[in-house]
Design brief:
Mean pLDDT: 96
Strand content: over 45%
Shape: globular
Low-confidence stretches: none
């Protein structure tokens, strides 16, 4: 089992940047594929980015490709989401999630563990 704790959210102007972190408990972090999802008020949760156990493979939603970057540090048990050129439509609650088997999965149901999330608000 793994517990996830996100941080790094906040209020930023359009065009700005934020770096989200997701710290995982336990010594098995490197056995999980990781991902970021987001959910805006009144909208369904959507996939943002995913990264494989080793970090060698990544996948992005078309809406964030070229602006966001996912990475992980298996020594620090942390996954990151670097967000650049932020837009008001990026405003959402951002969650990290862990999956023991589903590499680069875009469906939330494939992930077994979720954090509480961190709010990102982008003003125009």
């Amino acid at each position: 089992q793994v517990q996830l704790l996100e941080s790094g959210g906040g209020l930023v102007q359009a065009g700005g940047s934020l770096r989200l972190s997701c710290a995982a408990s336990g010594r098995t972090f490197s056995t999980y594929h990781m991902a970021w999802f987001r959910q805006a008020p009144g909208k369904e949760r959507e996939f943002v980015a995913a990264i494989s156990r080793s970090g060698a493979m990544t996948s992005y939603a078309d809406s964030v490709k070229g602006r966001f970057a996912i990475s992980r540090d298996n020594v620090k048990n942390t996954v990151y989401l670097e967000m650049n050129s932020l837009k008001p439509e990026d405003t959402a609650h951002y969650y990290c999630a862990a999956a023991p088997e589903a590499v680069l999965a875009r469906d939330g149901w494939r992930y077994d563990y979720w954090g509480q999330g961190t709010q990102v608000t982008v003003s125009s």
